Amino acid sequence: MIQVYGRDSSANVQAVMWCVAELGLEHERLDVGGSFGGTDTAEYRALNPMGLVPVLKDGGKVLWESPTIVRYLMKAYGDHPQDAFAAAQIEQWADWTRSHFYPQVVVGVFYQLYRMTAEQRNHGAVAAACAEMKHLGAIVSKAIKGPYFMGDRLTLADYAFGTLMHRYFVMEFDRGDFPVLRAYYDALCDRPAYRAQVMKDPNVLKVPGA
Question: Model pTM?
Answer without folding.
Answer: 0.97
